[in-house]
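$ ./design --mode recover --in tokens.txt
reading tokens...
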């Protein structure tokens, strides 16, 4: 929901965002241990959270961490349009708020602690992601800027406090990403009414913000970088590729959903060679679709836990417009394919003709063998040529899954990479 100068700033900003929280462990612990008798008034609370020995950075962090822990998002009030007061004193007493209450409480406590803090209002990607329609008078969002070490920094204590799931339930879970978020990342999800609060040399327009896909905090936390020109709806032809720069320890998968939200199996194909995440897209019919991309930390191909696989988490959602229909879906991939950083060159059609001669070619870093199995029967072994495995193979004569599997020096068993349907 990005720009050559942005890419350089992103790498620096992410390192800063990830480095800062470790410095605040002691501050966080003390804020979370605030006794009830110190929480009765704004003045008492500010004195407890921001003792005289704290730096401005530590004061801002202490206030931020306490609010994110103690205040619950008022979903019921939001849905019914019957919110309680959002002024700082009201939020302190009720411990419920929406974004305005969170942000105004931060501003009030920060100012009582001698900090310069501002309440900022504008648009956010959050409103469109709620599983219910907001009342017309609650379409905006509120967050803060705080002045630290000679410059303004951005934060969103509402989003740091937790999230709203697909069942319209607030799930409390602290998210450090929204504390002192670099402006180059913050703008993907927050557009202030006053453009100077973007704090960018080239501020975004409202049109650009509205046409930018929904990137999650995790996308940036992983150190990934989006294409400069990615907008939605992305107009795609069959086999269009979306490519994202990604650290070598990040892998991704994707899925395509139709206009009704139904998941379409194997109409996307994701590859995670080290240094990038590539997503190929085919659509069964012209029209509108929703592409979802998920990611997680990379394991070695042979380290996957089949009983309890590592969970993929959302990185990006984008509306796509298909220009024309594709004839066949992609082959199915297994977790070992992503973990290995494998790349499949051919065949990319998931349905192969029984008895046909077919060229197979793929790259599997670290593999010592790549073989094809029809059920449990070994069909062929591909030949290693440099960094690739390839060979001409006769497909089985019967309708049986055909799997491309790899064996690594670290383990004797074969790990499934790709599966084809024989017709």
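writing sequence...
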């Amino acid at each position: 929901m990005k720009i050559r100068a942005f890419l350089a700033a992103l790498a620096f900003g992410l390192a800063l965002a990830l480095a800062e929280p470790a410095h605040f462990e002691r501050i966080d612990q003390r804020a979370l241990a605030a006794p009830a008798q110190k929480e009765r008034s704004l003045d008492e609370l500010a004195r407890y959270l921001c003792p005289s020995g704290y730096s401005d950075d530590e004061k801002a962090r202490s206030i931020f961490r306490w609010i994110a822990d103690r205040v619950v998002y008022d979903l019921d009030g939001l849905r019914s349009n019957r919110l309680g007061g959002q002024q700082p004193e009201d939020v302190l007493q009720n411990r419920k708020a929406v974004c305005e209450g969170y942000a105004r409480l931060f501003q009030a406590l920060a100012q009582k602690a001698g900090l310069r803090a501002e309440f900022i209002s504008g648009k956010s990607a959050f409103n469109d992601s709620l599983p219910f329609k907001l009342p017309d008078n609650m379409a905006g969002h509120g967050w803060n800027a705080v002045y630290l070490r000679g410059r303004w920094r951005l934060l969103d204590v509402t989003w740091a406090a937790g999230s709203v799931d697909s069942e319209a339930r607030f799930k409390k879970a602290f998210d450090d990403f929204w504390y002192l978020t670099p402006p180059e990342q913050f703008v993907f999800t927050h557009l202030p009414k006053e453009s100077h609060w973007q704090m960018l040399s080239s501020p975004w327009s409202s049109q650009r913000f509205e046409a930018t896909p929904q990137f999650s905090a995790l996308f940036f936390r992983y150190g990934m970088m989006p294409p400069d020109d990615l907008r939605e709806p992305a107009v795609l032809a069959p086999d269009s590729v979306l490519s994202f720069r990604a650290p070598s320890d990040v892998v991704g998968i994707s899925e395509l959903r139709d206009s009704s939200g139904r998941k379409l199996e194997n109409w996307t194909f994701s590859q995670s060679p080290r240094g990038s995440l590539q997503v190929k897209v085919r659509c069964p019919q012209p029209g509108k679709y929703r592409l979802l991309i998920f990611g997680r930390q990379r394991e070695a191909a042979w380290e996957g836990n089949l009983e309890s696989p590592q969970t993929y988490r959302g990185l990006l959602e984008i509306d796509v417009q298909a220009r024309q229909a594709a004839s066949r879906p992609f082959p199915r991939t297994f977790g070992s394919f992503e973990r290995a950083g494998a790349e499949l060159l051919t065949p990319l059609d998931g349905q192969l003709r029984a008895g046909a001669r077919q060229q197979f070619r793929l790259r599997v870093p670290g593999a010592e063998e790549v073989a094809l199995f029809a059920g449990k029967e070994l069909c062929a072994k591909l030949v290693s040529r440099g960094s690739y495995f390839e060979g001409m193979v006769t497909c089985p004569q019967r309708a049986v899954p055909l799997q491309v599997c790899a064996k690594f020096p670290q383990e004797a068993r074969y790990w499934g990479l790709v599966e084809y349907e024989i017709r």
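exit 0
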